[in-house]
Automatic annotation (TrEMBL):
<feature type="domain" description="Peptidase M1 alanyl aminopeptidase Ig-like fold">
    <location>
        <begin position="452"/>
        <end position="560"/>
    </location>
</feature>
<dbReference type="Pfam" id="PF01433">
    <property type="entry name" value="Peptidase_M1"/>
</dbReference>
<keyword id="KW-0862">Zinc</keyword>
<feature type="domain" description="Aminopeptidase N-like N-terminal">
    <location>
        <begin position="92"/>
        <end position="190"/>
    </location>
</feature>
<keyword id="KW-0645">Protease</keyword>
<dbReference type="InterPro" id="IPR035414">
    <property type="entry name" value="Peptidase_M1_pepN_Ig-like"/>
</dbReference>
<dbReference type="GO" id="GO:0016285">
    <property type="term" value="F:alanyl aminopeptidase activity"/>
</dbReference>
<comment type="similarity">
    <text>Belongs to the peptidase M1 family.</text>
</comment>
<dbReference type="InterPro" id="IPR038438">
    <property type="entry name" value="PepN_Ig-like_sf"/>
</dbReference>
<dbReference type="InterPro" id="IPR042097">
    <property type="entry name" value="Aminopeptidase_N-like_N_sf"/>
</dbReference>
<dbReference type="Pfam" id="PF17432">
    <property type="entry name" value="DUF3458_C"/>
</dbReference>
<dbReference type="InterPro" id="IPR027268">
    <property type="entry name" value="Peptidase_M4/M1_CTD_sf"/>
</dbReference>
<dbReference type="InterPro" id="IPR045357">
    <property type="entry name" value="Aminopeptidase_N-like_N"/>
</dbReference>
<dbReference type="Pfam" id="PF11940">
    <property type="entry name" value="DUF3458"/>
</dbReference>
<dbReference type="Pfam" id="PF17900">
    <property type="entry name" value="Peptidase_M1_N"/>
</dbReference>
<feature type="domain" description="Peptidase M1 alanyl aminopeptidase C-terminal">
    <location>
        <begin position="565"/>
        <end position="890"/>
    </location>
</feature>
<keyword id="KW-0482">Metalloprotease</keyword>
Amino acid sequence: MRTDTPQAIYRKDYTPPSYWVNTVEMGFDLDPDLTRVATRMTLSRNIGSRGKSLVLYGESLELVQLRMNGKEVGKRGYTLGNGVLEIFNVPAEVTLDIETALRPNQNTSLMGLYTSNGNFFTQCEAEGFRKITFFPDRPDVMATYKVMLRADKDKYPVLLSNGNLIEEGDLGDGRHYAVWEDPFKKPSYLFALVAGQLVCQEETYKLQSGREVLLQVWVEEGNLDKTQHAMDSLKNSIRWDEERFGLELDLDRFMIVAVGDFNMGAMENKGLNIFNTKFVLANPRIATDADYAGIESVVGHEYFHNWTGNRVTCRDWFQLSLKEGLTVFRDQEFSADLIGTDSGRAVKRIEDVRVLRQAQFPEDAGPMAHPVRPDSYVEINNFYTVTIYEKGSEVVRMYQTLLGRDGFRKGMDLYFQRHDGQAVTCDDFRAAMADAGGRDLSQFELWYSQAGTPRVKVETRYDEVAQSYMITLTQSCPPTPGQPNKLPFHIPVAVGLLDSGGRDMPLVLDSVEGGDDRSVAPTTMVLELTEPSQTFHFRNVREEPVPSVLRNFSAPVILDIEYTDAQLAFLMANDSDAFNRWEAGQRLAMRRMLALTEAVKNGEALDRNADENALGAAFRATLTDNALDPAFCELALTLPSESVVAEQMDVVHPQAIHQVRRFLRRALASALRFQWEVAYQSNRTPGAYSPDPVSAGKRGLKNLALSYIVELDDGDAHKLAQSQYDNANNMTDRIAALSALVNSNAPGKDAALASFYEDFKQEALVVDKWFSLQAMARHTDVAAVRELMNHPAFSLRNPNRARSLIFSFCNGNPAQFHAPDGSGYEFWADQVIALNTINPQVAARLARSLDRWRKYAPELQDRMRAALQRVAATKSLSKDVHEVISKSLA
Ligand code: ARG
Ligand code: ZN
């Protein structure tokens, strides 16, 4: 907790450390009340640093002893304050011995060393290692680590750390020890230890090179029946990185450990990944298809960090996207490759873009907007954002779009060739791509330095006489905090042209020589937009085409393009690019939703029998097309979410949007009831549950059909949902049925909710689902959420539980959260303030829920500002929350 105003740190101020650390040896005496840590490190002075002091960071620590080359450092030899230990007159080569004491049981921040359900865990990224010992805790300081853990043998039978186990044994007096050595140099944020009562599933796995490695998934006893999917995902990840990028696992042993109290998804500590249980534990009884997919991608993500993050790491935290954007890109490609089919890849792409639009576009348009490589931060933990991760991934994807898959691979190879074992920058990555591809990518740098979502406007002209077609692309980017004016980006825009039969036309650009040979003309072309405005001329265009622009979402931009309803329906039915087929349907739906929302705002009644013609016809065509992949259908038949619609409006009216979305869903349900019933019946997946993409896709469409049918809220619909609930043999079907019931007026809904809790109260992850489902249900108001907080199973201390109820309500139930009386905002402020003292990181995430307060009607704005100001005025606000709130109010 601070007392002063937190200071920003600037990228331009980066200076190399005055000392490098070569080796680190640590001894832990683990005790939940008071753990002692003895650290010995050898350091060498950096060139040009003569006369400079040695700066070590430490937080919430007691300094027990400090020795330099064996001699106690006197009071005049150092200063200690504000989390900095500065030592003076340090020789060029030095051995430092530091002893610290800390209190894991009292550590509710879940950073550094903490306990969870009686076991010890660590989380050191970004700056948690300084809560364990005083250290140059910055990612450019890389050292080798040897760690001895000592603890009570009965209470902590398992002792794990990074690397290889080189020794273990008894200490007498009921205690034992283990020594771990990590042969690879690493920054302190990749340090980890785990100790406690855990069991593992293990397998030996043969790498392509023939070398055998030991794979382990560690969990609490009783969860061993839920580790198989994580283990399979790990093996798939290892194989994929060998095949796609030629990257091999470099350790003899790779461990994943699940912990129930965790701030984020998971952490890539070298050889000892620590995971939120949510991304490890699965069996058909407790996990949904989405959970299975999430586990696969997070296991992949953390594993892929071993090369992109660990072997090559970040010079400083401004470069965070260097590892995160790249690793998200890699996990997205991994999941897509595992599905294997073209339509499966498209489905994955659509899902990823949905996340980007739902979460990153709003961030990029709000007060916390920041570049993929930020220029400053107050609290680095606030920068583990969708911009760093998801937009960062889009930036990496654009290299692949510009250079081709082979060119991208060459760039990756060069990146590792140049930088293995180093801590580097986003510029180094871009240079590797540019040099390997023989391309000038200097303008591309703007994707890293400029925040905001660019807009690309499309205008077209067909000249029948000349048989030519012109596409004019014009780009702009709105101002963002600290960046009023933007330079033009280098934007790859993939286009295709459809003829009147819906087929792709061969594309011949006027500027391309000898492009007349139609047999080799491509049907998708990447236009490179680098100027504010550019016109591209296509020739030999036999008839006026319908353009398909930004295929596969080739750049993270907003596309302004005018289509008629008929053209959108045509694209939805014919575009060879599945992403744009989906996109056309979403545009059609969005247009209708915005028009209806306008009507509601003007006090017009929505006609219950309105014939949803254009949209209804398009939906009917999709729903009845048996050739379509069910997973694709599910996405195509899902209306844009309330928050995505909100993003399109100048003044957001959450209740109007909610009303319209429901109205449209009902209209589509009643117009297509028979087709929904058919889809429901024909996408059943009888037999044993399997989470494979085909079965999951069928369940997805079936459960979407169920949700539409239950919108009609009649006896037959209720019966269908109730019977699915009663007979489900897997969590996907069970929770879908429960959600349908709870969002209806079905007579059995309360009984179903109660029985669900009884059946699953031993399964923390399912209890999270139970809270979350209620938090997002349409009848749940602020009072009901406050009531749920009194449930014995609720706790603010556990991040998953806090997220399941409070975040789900504030972020996932906009119509209730934005209650006109402001009660939602008061609730929000209460919880931010309560969480602030328990866990600043989690509190700061929740603090982001009022980010876009300036987009609402003035009466709501006033109430939101009051809530923000109440939080701002709170005593001992963490710098995490302080940064978010002050930027929101700025
Ligand atoms: N590097 C981790 C990942 O991407 C995220 C850890 C972030 N943790 C934090 N406390 N900020 O998988
Ligand atoms: Zn990551």
